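Dear colleague,

Following up on Tuesday's group meeting, I ran the structure prediction for the two-component complex that the binding team flagged. I've pasted the input sequences exactly as they went in, so you can double-check that nothing got truncated or mislabelled along the way. The structure tokens for the whole assembly follow below. Feel free to forward this to whoever is handling the docking comparison.

Inputs:
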Amino acid sequence: MANFATETERRPWLPLPPWARGTLVTLSSIAVTMLGLLFVTFLIGRVMPIDPVLAIVGERATEEQYNAAYRELGLDRSLAVQFFYYVSDVLRGDFGTSLLTARDVSSDIARVFPATFELATIGILFGCILGVPLGVIAAVRRGSWIDQIARVIALVGYSMPIFWLGLMGLLLFYGILGWVGGPGRQGIFYEDMIPSVTGMILIDSLIAGDWGAFRDAFSHIVLPASLLGYYSLAYISRMTRSFMLEQLSAEYITTARVKGMSEWAVIWSHAFRNIRVQLITVIALSYANLLEGSVLTEIIFAWPGIGSYITTALLSADMNAVLGGTVVVGLVFICLNIFSDLLYKVFDPRSK
Amino acid sequence: MSMTSQTPPSSGGQSLRQWLLSDTPTSRRQARLSALYQGWLALRQNHMAMVGLAILVVLISIALFAPLIAPHDPFVQDLANRLQPLGSEGHLLGTDSLGRDILSRLIYGARITLYIVALVALIAPVVGLLVGTISGYAGGWTDVILMRITDIFLAFPRLVLALAFVAALGAGIENAVLAISLTAWPPYARMARAETLTIRSSDYISAIRLQGAGPLRIIIKHIWPLCISSLIVRVTLDMAGIILAAAGLGFLGLGAQPPSPEWGAMISEGRRFILDHWWVATMPGLAIFAVSLAFNLLGDGLRDVLDPKDSAS
């Protein structure tokens, strides 16, 4: 993006004020990235060894039926035309029909997405609430035992396979200790008891005023969400620490200390205030990564979210569902990236 | 640096050591070896990096001598002795659901892990280096187009993209390697481009250009060598992620296929018995953890030595 900005600065080809040109450049680069994403999924769909026509008409179709379906799918047109139709379908929210569920992929995704959203959101909350203070303390008490512990926590987080950690968590907290609910989002007793409003069970059970269902849902979500959150904790605490170290070595901090300001005020109302923007961008990025990590976590915990949806579809060669899911996850990922970029530009006075 | 305070190496090495630490190298070879040696001395100070290196050396030897070390054939099934616990007769780490020795499977699995890591470490940085240096050196539209493509790949969630690629290409180790490489090269391209941009405008490049060197020669002989050190650090730090991605694909049944003793696939097999026979899934997980931890430790140490400006601590 920086690249584009310098290009336009050199030769202003549009008679627009700088802010409008900046917005235009940002918007166009978003559009190009999204188009690129669709192009990649389109290509993946085309090089598939599975014949999409056979998947519809079946093995015993006559040649006429096969040819009719072939034309129906638009496979006789050029790749460019096919891509154009693909993009316009996606823009209308049409990802085709899932072979597995025999429903629209978009309605399937709308059904499973809230589960992933709920999981990832609780996970990121966990990561922030523990990760930010840990990073701040590690920076302030640099080299102390708590700094070493923070370092180990982060290293282990970077090195542990998430699906294995999930299994171990399930073994310990469910199998041995019995502290949490098992796999799935709800116990059998509460299954389909709560009317779906938002699709997020924690919120739906609160709306219904059913405390038993809420406790049940919470006992199911707490383990996968905290394991998922552990990965963002590792990243967030490391980044918080290095941002804080940078601030704490600045001269204004020395000045504040010389003035006799309390250490608490120096840390929280001076240093921490100045890392807020950087921190939010980091959190947005790790939220995006959490979506990805949820694919493997969901499988371990039989969590009916988009990760389970994509992988189940994958194993039964349900290509519309795989590509639809990939596009949606990709779009959310891009949006979060752009959001963190924008946040930085809007709130950090230095970037103006 | 306090290199002179080091304990001297074993007998006869003293003169070699002095030659290596000489302030006035007399040949290019001496200068290069000296730089390498000093880097090694600095790395040796970092105990955690040494632990990482030790784990990796052990892993590589295990992979090399797998047939000699493994107590059993990793593929031979023994249904009479299935799901034996840890420390049972002849099976130190127990057996899996088909009665295969878990320790032997882990030992052979080290080969698969190293194979995947080595292939990705060859493909992704080279592609990234090519794209990045061409983009940075050529500038203009070439730069814009190549960087847009890089951005598109960067914008994808890596695991999901790898899943979609494997879905299209078919499951298997080679396709998993390809899928991981396809998602791993963009950061290298970004990095190589940034380095190229700084190097391109330096005086010595202008001097070489005035002497008549073509772009190809400049890129290969004068830009690539300077990009290598930061690339190596990045590759080492990425290795952990690559191992986790490969294990994840194996776990989903999209990487190495059974009966291959790939660690991720082993976890997936053991998953069904997790509550009653926990060791079947636990042992391969520990192996993955140890190896990716080793790469992270070594990568941190290498970063401190080669690239002190990026150091987080």
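The CA atoms of residues 169 and 223 of chain A lie 7 Å apart.

Cheers,
M.
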